[in-house]
Every structure is written in structure tokens, then in C-alpha cells.
Design a protein that fits this description.
The structure is a single chain. The chain is an all-beta fold. The protein has a domain of 91 residues. Helices cover 0% and strands 36% of the residues. A hairpin with a 4-residue loop joins strand 1 and strand 2. The radius of gyration is 17 Å and the shape is globular. The chain starts with a strand and ends in a 5-residue tail after the last strand.
């Protein structure tokens, strides 16, 4: 589930539903969401699995930013699976960065593209922005099975 972050001109993942705010949700199967009562309600946690190797990427302009992730895991496949995260809809704001991973076997734009663990892998990153955009790799590498 996502809400709109007006300060960053982007959607952000949320776990709470609050009165007076709008949300975007995508489900891969039929379901029903019932909201009753008042106050904040907890949204179900996404079923995204943590991969063995994960590398966060940040794209940033003067007015907005976009967080993406690439990674690898033995259990991942080249088709859409529980390791991948789909990209929320494109912002109506003209200053937003449109960025996502494009994979041949997946018909969706990916915010997180986790591929099978192998010696060589390629990721195709699509970026559209009317502003100068900086790409940085977050210097924290997550490796599930590191033994120090």
C-alpha cells in the first residue's frame, strides 16, 4: 500500500491507513479491504521476501527522489515472484522522476528487481526526468549470509 508524499513528489510505502489521506494498493488476487471505525488502522504487511543480496539505489533531482532496489537470491526467478516489488502509478506532478526496472519476462514496472543468484546478471533501468538526475548506490550492502 502506498500514500502520496507531497514533500518528495513521490509515493511511499505505508503500513497505516489514516483518515483524510488517499492510498494506492495493488493486489495480485481478488480481495476485499474493509475500513471501519476511527483512528489509524494497520495495513497488512506486504509479502515481499528479503533477498540474499540487496543493493538500494537512489535517483534524485532538486525536487524529488526515487528509491529502487536490485538484488539476487537463490529462490528468485526471472518471472515476477515474492522478491520483486511493483512500481506504484506515475505521479501527476511534472517534477517527478519516473524510474523503474524493466525485465523481459515481467509485464510490470519494477521498483525492486531481484534475480536468481548467479555469476552474471543484468538490470535494465528506465529513467525519465525533465531535470538533471543523480544516481547513487546506497553504500550499505545487505548480504543475508555474511560470516564475519
Amino acid at each position: 500500500m502506498y500514500s502520496w508524499d507531497a514533500a518528495r513528489f513521490t509515493y511511499e510505502g505505508v503500513t497505516q491507513i489514516e483518515p483524510g489521506k488517499g492510498y494506492w494498493a495493488l493486489t495480485m488476487v481478488d480481495c476485499q479491504l474493509t475500513v471501519t471505525g476511527s483512528g489509524s488502522l494497520a495495513a497488512p504487511q506486504p509479502l515481499v521476501k528479503l533477498p540474499e543480496l540487496m543493493l538500494p539505489i537512489v535517483l534524485q533531482t532538486d525536487h524529488s527522489s526515487k528509491d529502487l532496489v536490485i538484488g539476487m537470491d537463490e529462490g528468485a526467478s526471472l518471472s515476477l515472484d515474492g522478491f520483486d516489488q511493483l512500481m506504484p502509478p506515475v505521479s501527476p506532478m511534472k517534477t517527478e522522476i519516473e524510474a523503474y526496472f524493466d525485465r523481459d519476462k515481467v509485464d510490470w514496472n519494477l521498483q525492486s528487481d531481484i534475480q536468481p543468484l548467479q555469476d552474471r546478471a543484468e538490470w535494465r533501468l528506465v529513467v525519465r526526468s525533465k531535470e538533471i538526475t543523480d544516481l547513487s548506490v546506497v553504500p550499505v550492502l545487505y548480504w543475508k549470509h555474511i560470516n564475519w
